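Example 9 (inverse folding). The structure is encoded as follows.
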């Protein structure tokens, strides 16, 4: 093999190696971008989870307050019904 042929072969191998390296770098950049997108999505999901947990806590607290108000109203209604019955009974007699 002559020196020119050996240099041409080496140049071709070098060009192929550089092309492979460029492709590997591009794949790595693509993987890094995909990882960054996944990280952003994970962060967004974490934020959504925190927001939803806070909303759930607020809704549960509101539910407890409504249950308490409902019990109080029921108690007052029962007392009013008892008073009305007492007045009716007193007027019947």
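The amino acid assigned to each position is listed next.
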């Amino acid at each position: 093999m002559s020196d020119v042929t050996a240099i041409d072969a080496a140049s071709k191998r070098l060009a192929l190696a550089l092309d492979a390296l460029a492709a590997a770098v591009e794949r790595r950049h693509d993987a890094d971008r995909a990882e960054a997108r996944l990280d952003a999505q994970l962060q967004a999901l974490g934020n959504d989870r925190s927001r939803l947990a806070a909303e759930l806590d607020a809704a549960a607290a509101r539910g407890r307050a409504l249950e308490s108000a409902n019990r109080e109203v029921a108690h007052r209604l029962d007392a009013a019904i008892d008073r009305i019955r007492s007045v009716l009974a007193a007027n019947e007699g």
